[in-house]
Structure formats: C-alpha cells, structure tokens
Amino acid sequence: MIIFQNKIMDRSEVSIDIEDRGYQFGDGVYEVIRIYDGKLFEMEGHMKRLERSAGEIELSLPFPASEIIYSIKELIKHNNIKDGHVYMQITRGASSRNHPFPDNATPVLTAYTKEYEENPSATTEGIKALLADDIRWLRCDIKSLNLLGNVLGKQKAKDNGYDETIFHRGDTVTEGSSTNVFIVNNGQLVTHPATNLILNGITRKVVIDLAQNMSIPVREEEFTIDELLSADEVFITSTTIEVAPVTQINNTVLNDGKTGEVTRKLQEAFKNRISKVINK
Ligand code: PMP
C-alpha cells in the first residue's frame, strides 16, 4: 500500500497525470525518513525541512504536517515495516504544460515505504569517494526533485568503481551526491556551513549535536580539496548510510584505509541515539 493525497491506497489504484509538474519540471520537494524498529527517526526535523523546502519554492503543503505524519505511521503499521524508510514527495500538481506556476493546480502528495533487507549502514565500512565538479544549481539547500546533478555525480562514481562522489566548487568541498561531508583534524570536526550550496542534512545536524555533547569541537566552515585529502579522518553522513568512514578519495588512501577513532566514536554515539528512539 502507498499514500496518495494522504489516503492509504493500493499502489495499482493510483494514477499520476502525465502533466504533473513533478514529472515534467521536477517541480516539487521530497523527504526520506528512516524507520528503525517501526519508528520514525528524527521525524520533526524532516517535516520542518519539508515545510521549508516547499516554502522556498512557494508551495504550501496540501495537508498539515501532523496529518501527513499520522498517515505515514498508519502506512508503516499497515505495511509492517521494521527497518527501512519512507519516501514522500509533494509536487505542484497537474496543469497544461507551461513554465509559470498554474493558477489552480492541486499539489499532489505521494509516499511509500521501503523495507531494507540488509541495513545499508552495515555495508559502509570504508567508502571510496571520487571528486567531481559541483555542477548543480545554487539552491542545493532545497530538497527538490531536480536531482540530475546528483544523479550524474553518483553515476560517475559508479562507472569508475567508487561508492560516492564528493563535490567541489572550485577549491571548496561542498558535499557528497547524497551525503554531507565531514573532515577530522586534531580531534576537531569541520563541515561546510549550511548555506545555499549544500543540503542541511538531518544526520549532519544529529552528528554535530552528538559531537558537541562529547566535547568534540565542530567548525561549520569551508574547507579545501587539499584539506580533505590531508585530513586525519573523513566521514560522510545521511539518513540511509548514517555515519560512514571515507577511506579513499580518488587515488589517495586515508588513515591507512581504516575507520578513524573519532569517526568510530561518533558511529557508536549515533547507534546509541537510535537505541533511545527504539526503546522510547
Ligand atoms: N546532501 C544531499 C545532496 C542529499 O541528497 C542528502 C540525502 N538526502 C544529504 C546531504 C544527507 O541528508 P540527510 O542526512 O537529511 O539524509
């Protein structure tokens, strides 16, 4: 079963208009929320970001966030999802194809659950990353459906035998194609500030929070490719992979190909944070 316009329906009963603007223009926003043991992780942060993304493209949520969450929880129960995620998106709706916003289109909300056969974070011991030019637009802070720059980046990594692409604008490292990037130097974390050039990851925020609780200093500042390649440790974060060490970038092996000490501590703290949610 899936969600269409906030109702739980059979997937085969749902039809999307060929002129839906999400389909034709990528005119919409989305979120992915992790499910651990049937429970939503960092749900409020994700819903706030969804509202913000929608607001930034002048789209209002077709249903209140609380009602969307209610339906999503029902869907998780209905589909009996223990570990996985829920994907939801809102498009500006269907209208005769024309670039400006239509006067009377109804935004379309869809959501579905995905169950993990294997925990994706369990397979992320040592990510290999490829550097690539950040060719995306200048509003990467909006979680919009326009993901071609990210898709091309990830494909480039895959084609070359790497797991992820780390983008840079000129000399400045921004983020991964679907992850945020942290470097560790002398026990301190540095990550790109939450500007228009990156997506302000929910996992990024959790990690910053955990680090501060552990008295690990965090600087939200730009850093260069050289700083990335010579860092003591590098790790990436996202809803699906959680906290994953980067052990190789292009041809440079980092930290002898091993997970660094600070990364390991943060992974542990992250797992504890998940346990708290599960046991609540
Ligand atoms: N940056 C980009 C470009 C992403 O697509 C994602 C994943 N949605 C992230 C960062 C990580 O964000 P989050 O921790 O909220 O999953």
Automatic annotation (TrEMBL):
Matching entries from Pfam families are given as: Aminotran_4
Q: Which reaction does it catalyse?
A: D-alanine + 2-oxoglutarate = D-glutamate + pyruvate
Do you know which InterPro entries this protein is assigned to?
Aminotrans_IV (IPR001544), Aminotrans_IV_CS (IPR018300), Aminotransferase-like (IPR036038), BCAT-like_C (IPR043132), BCAT-like_N (IPR043131), Class-IV_PLP-Dep_Aminotrnsfr (IPR050571), D_amino_transT (IPR005784)
Q: Which cofactor does it need?
A: pyridoxal 5'-phosphate
**Superkingdom of origin:** Bacteria
Q: What is its EC number?
A: 2.6.1.21
Q: Which GO terms describe its molecular function?
A: D-alanine-2-oxoglutarate aminotransferase activity; pyridoxal phosphate binding
What GO terms describe the biological role, i.e. biological process, of this protein? amino acid biosynthetic process; carboxylic acid biosynthetic process; D-amino acid metabolic process
Question: Which key words are in the record?
Answer: Aminotransferase, Pyridoxal phosphate, Transferase
CC annotations in GO? cytosol
Q: What class of enzyme is it?
A: transferase
Tell me the function of this protein.
Acts on the D-isomers of alanine, leucine, aspartate, glutamate, aminobutyrate, norvaline and asparagine. The enzyme transfers an amino group from a substrate D-amino acid to the pyridoxal phosphate cofactor to form pyridoxamine and an alpha-keto acid in the first half-reaction.
Q: Subunit structure of this entry?
A: Homodimer.
Family statement drawn from the similarity comment of this UniProt entry: Belongs to the class-IV pyridoxal-phosphate-dependent aminotransferase family.
Q: Which NCBIfam families match?
A: D_amino_aminoT, PRK06680.1
Q: What is this protein called?
A: D-alanine aminotransferase
